[in-house]
Design goal:
alpha/beta; Alpha-D-Glucose-1,6-Bisphosphate, Chain A, domain 3; 5-stranded mixed β-sheet; 19 strands
């Protein structure tokens, strides 16, 4: 035992010496503090070199602790091109646990001379055996800064003796998928980009065989790649889809700037088509975000009006399709849709009252949705911004697989259960994935013979408006009831309640941003004018009661 401990001690000293030397090549600017949030770290790329090196260190520790491969993705998603960021990926392809988010913040903000102390502190707290091997998968998006920043991650891993696999340019969901494939020893799929394309395209082709007489027009989809990694990967995937899908790719990165006047976030916030896309009347279009983990659909009608099909519409389409298949297959599985306070009131009413689907509301942030979706046999979750996926419990997958093999099933049951099996294979269950979600949506529309207009007509969104108010400290706002009610500052919720009463079919809520000193305001009502007016009045209340800074919010009209 003594020899083992002496070896471990010697091993650690040598490793720490290397960390100490290498960290000098990635120095931390004095006084800079950053917080690891839902989206990991995100800021201007020039502030991130030391963070990347340290996340390499942390991922190595996490790998030793879990005895599994961990992922590190270098991306700032839908942020402007000059920003960058980093996210850690846990063994099953999920986001890193909250405890380790805390360690990430602690390690990132340690001044240069106390880095080793913080590192040792984590090792002691988590009782990590430093002689365990470590394996870290690293990926990056197409930002100019991503190459040097991902190199800093690789340096961090190697200085603690970890092994790396550098996937280079991949979408965020692809890296989540690789990590899950590796740690399930191939059960989830093959941990290569090619393996990802093969698994998804095979499932897609099996599903679209069930769509009768599709015309070329029905196979055509206009895709806005946000001038990012999603465009690159879509190009690579096209040959795998054969002639079952005709993708017209715009904002493919050949000329425009990442996320500039294009991408899912731009389309959702501006409620208009991205630049560089030529849309015909009624043509189905979709936009990815910068790292391809969000998607929104849209079209223009014969009057030239723009129609957005956001995360709520996507969740409704997919959950109603799955519910029908479960009925046809005679499977008694509980399906639920997990929403946040941002979900349009019409979608909630349609799901609960018409489709009789369980709806659960949770705090904003993908990890809250993902966690809540795990409580059901089948959990469908999409944020309104188009980030989401479907989770199938192990028990549900087992039941579906057993039914596939059952020789006594009649034709209808057989078909339904085969469709369910292919749908499971098409969905990236680790995280929201624009490419996977797009293929699911395309398959569902094809099988049901629906156009974008038919899909849009399932229910009509209540007009809504989102605004933000800059405050001196966002922490003065505290919320409860899945962020639908404000607990502090005093009097704010009472004010909101009385404002809401003035309008028809109205509701409004406020919540602090997770990343900046801003309070986000949401309002919906029976007309756009009312929604705008309510949003403005609530913004004024926030400005006055929660320490607004700058000019008082101006009316929208």
């Amino acid at each position: 035992m003594l020899i083992h401990e002496t070896m471990q001690c010697f091993y650690e000293m040598a490793q720490f010496e290397e960390v100490s030397q290498k960290s000098k090549l990635h120095p931390k600017p004095e006084g800079l503090t950053l917080q690891y949030g839902t989206a990991g770290f995100r800021t201007h790329a020039k502030h991130l070199d030391h963070i990347m090196f340290r996340m390499g260190l942390l991922a190595t520790l996490r790998s030793k602790k879990t005895k599994s491969t961990i992922g590190v993705m270098v991306t700032a998603s839908h942020n402007p091109e000059e920003d960058n960021g980093v996210k850690l990926i846990d063994p099953m392809g999920e986001m890193v646990t909250a405890m380790w988010e805390g360690y990430a913040t602690q390690l990132a903000n340690a001044e240069q001379d106390s880095l080793l102390k913080e590192l040792k502190d984590i090792i002691e707290k988590e009782d990590i055996n430093m002689s365990e091997p470590a394996s870290v998968y690293v990926g990056k998006d197409t930002r100019p800064s991503s190459a040097s920043l991902s190199q800093a991650v690789l340096d961090g891993v190697s200085s603690l003796g970890g092994k790396t696999h550098d996937y280079g340019l991949v979408t965020t969901p692809q890296l989540h998928y690789m990590v899950c494939c590796c740690n399930t020893h191939g059960c989830y799929g093959s941990p290569t980009v090619e393996g990802y394309y093969q698994k998804l395209s095979q499932a897609f082709l099996q599903l679209t065989q069930n769509a009768l007489n599709r015309t070329d027009d029905q196979k055509r989809l206009l895709v806005d790649g946000a001038n990012g990694i999603g465009a690159l990967k879509m190009r690579e995937m096209e040959p795998f889809l054969r002639s079952e899908m005709q993708v017209v790719l715009s904002n493919d990165g050949s000329s425009g700037k990442l996320n500039h006047m294009c991408g899912a976030d731009y389309v959702k916030v501006q409620q208009k088509a991205p630049q560089g896309m030529n849309m015909g009347v009624g043509e189905r279009c979709c936009s990815f975000d910068g790292d391809a983990d969000r998607i929104v659909y849209y079209y223009t009608d014969s009057k030239g009006c723009f129609h957005l099909l956001d995360g709520d519409k996507i969740a409704t389409l997919i959950s109603t399709y799955l519910k029908e298949l479960l009925t046809q297959a005679g499977l008694n599985l509980q399906i639920a849709v997990v929403q946040t306070a941002y979900a349009n009131g019409s979608s909630t009413r349609y799901l609960e009252d018409v489709m009789k689907v369980t709806v659960c509301c949770t705090k904003t942030g993908v990890k809250h949705l993902h966690h809540a979706a795990q409580e059901y046999d089948i959990g469908v979750y999409f944020e309104a911004n188009g980030h989401g996926t479907v989770l199938f419990s192990k028990a549900a997958q087992k039941q579906i697989q057993e039914l596939v093999k059952d020789p006594n099933s009649n034709d209808e049951r057989k078909r339904a259960v085969k469709l369910l099996e292919s749908t499971i294979n098409l969905i990236n269950q680790t995280v929201g994935d624009a490419i996977s979600d797009m293929l699911v949506i395309e398959a569902v529309l094809a099988i049901r013979g629906m156009s974008a207009q038919d899909w849009d007509a399932i229910y009509t969104d209540l007009p809504n408006r989102q605004l933000k108010v800059t405050v001196s400290d966002r922490r003065v706002i505290d919320t409860t009831d899945a962020e639908r009610r404000a607990v502090s500052p005093e009097g704010l919720q009472d004010t909101i309640d009385s404002l809401v009463k003035k309008y028809k079919s109205a509701r409004s809520f406020v919540r602090p941003s997770g990343t900046e000193d801003v309070v986000r305001v949401y309002a919906e009502a029976d007309t756009q004018e009312s929604a705008d007016s309510l949003a403005h009045e609530v913004s004024l209340a926030v400005y006055r009661l929660a320490g607004g800074i700058g000019d008082e919010p101006k009316p929208l009209h």
